[in-house]
Amino acid sequence: MLNRTLPGIQGLKHIVVLMMENRSFDHMLGALHSRNPAIDGLTGAQTNPDSTGVPVTVAPNAAYQSQLDPDPDHHFPAVDLQIFGGTTTAQDANRLPNMQGFVKSYANVQHNLAHSHLIMNYFTPEKLPVLTTLATQFAVFNRWFASIPGPTLCNRAFAHYGTSFGQVSMDIFYWNKQYKSIYERLNAAGHTTRLYYYDEASSSLEVVNLLQDQPALFGTFQDFLDACNRNKLPEYSFIEPNYTDHDAPDGSGELIASDQHPDHDVRAGEQFIATVYNAIRNNPNLWPNTALLIVYDEHGGIYDHVPPPACLPDGFVAQPKDTGTPDPFHFDRLGVRVPAVLVSPWVAANTVINEVFEHSSIPATMTDYFIGAYNNRSPREIAANTFLGYLNQPTIRAESDCPTFKNS
After folding, report:
1. Contact of 302 with 42, CB cutoff 8 Å
2. Which residues contact 13 (CB under 8 A, 6 or more apart)?
3. Do the strands 340-343 and 47-49 form a parallel or antiparallel pair, or are they unpaired?
4. Is the entire prediction scored with pTM above 0.90?
5. What does the pLDDT look like over 248-288, one tens digit per residue?
6. Residues 51 and 113: beta-carbon distance below 8 Å
7. 390 near 346, Cβ under 8 Å?
8. CB 86 within 8 A of CB 73
């Protein structure tokens, strides 16, 4: 239960979640293990067999762009191969999550042996100064997993609803009224909330579902920046990056995709994360009473060494015709681990969190903090850990003790 007497909790007014795209923990943050062994990252000895059986070792050679092209497969059958190494049915006693199928899976996308090895590359901290600085100067989650071993939309649904309503695919028409979104819950309870998509040309992945009833829930990224400047930030904000390269509406030039989805430029995502952080950090009216969670929706088919754990089923079942695998999926295990960082001046530097989290933890945390008792939620969400308890410092950190980044 959340200790509401903590100074950082007593003054907490705003929670912001920024969800990026399709990168695994080891790919982005695994190299931090060498700086802090408490971070469950890479030792440099992890391997995966390629399609000829030759072991491929992880390597610090990830590139910002033009390396993971074509896009690694991260649909349900491919992720099943990545996690279980090719043992396909639960009836096989040898079916254990061994994380040995990533190179084989990437070889299926482009039948090029050398190219398939690139899935084992990872970034050094120097190449990701924003994300790695925030991870080390605040709190990093060792065990934040995608909600299911599948692609973007069904994983993002868990962040909004605490379930994907039985979907494991990119089908966007799965919305139903069994469980309310966290935005609808908060509005009904008298709290302010907004989902900020980037702009009209790169609009929210949840428009089809939520816009049916709640157009007032949405705003653009510029609206978020304006809300920060005017001290009008909602109590809960969910931010989506720019998903596409496209011309700016005002004709000022091309806007580069900032979601970090392969094969978009990772540096644009770094700058986007810094912009969100700066909007909060540089406002003295927001910084002391705002918590920022930076998380990725799923791993994008990229290597991670930590096997996903079992979890409480959410009450739905996906049949083989939907999973593309021999067995039904009971939503009883999580997807691959993703980067997640919690930022607040009430979080101690170098905090490493070892509890298991997944995207249902987002609506679970918002409901717990802003609403309290609320039973009409998926079993998965009810069971999910919440993360505000790590705002546990007795005094706020000095501004000089918190990092700053230059705006572009």
Report:
1. no
2. 235, 289, 290
3. unpaired
4. yes
5. 777 777 889 899 999 999 999 999 999 999 999 999 999 99
6. yes
7. no
8. no
7-48+123-401 CATH choice from 3.40.720.10, 3.40.50.740, 3.60.15.10, 3.20.20.70? 3.40.720.10
Helix axes 76-84, 102-109, angle to 10 degrees: 140
CB 260 within 8 A of CB 127: no
- C-alpha–C-alpha distance, residues 59 and 64, integer Å: 15
Structure tokens at 123: 């970034």
Closest listed residue to residue 324, CA positions, set 136, 149, 115, 126: 149
Check residue 235 and give its pLDDT: 98
Distance CA 124, CA 122 (A): 7
Q: Retrieve residue 329's tokens.
A: 């999926």
* C-alpha dist (Å) from residue 291 to 195, 389, 391: 16, 11, 8
What does the alpha-carbon distance between residue 291 and residue 17 come to, in Å, rounded to a whole number? 8
Kind and range of the H or E run holding 144: strand 144-145
Q: CB under 8 Å to 9, separation ≥6 — which residues?
A: 2, 3, 346, 388, 391
User: Distance between CA 176 and CA 403 in Å, rounded?
Assistant: 42
Strand-strand pairing, 246-247 and 290-296: unpaired
In contact, 242 and 232? CB cutoff 8 Å: no
In the 8-state DSSP scheme, what is residue 368? I
DSSP code for 333:
B
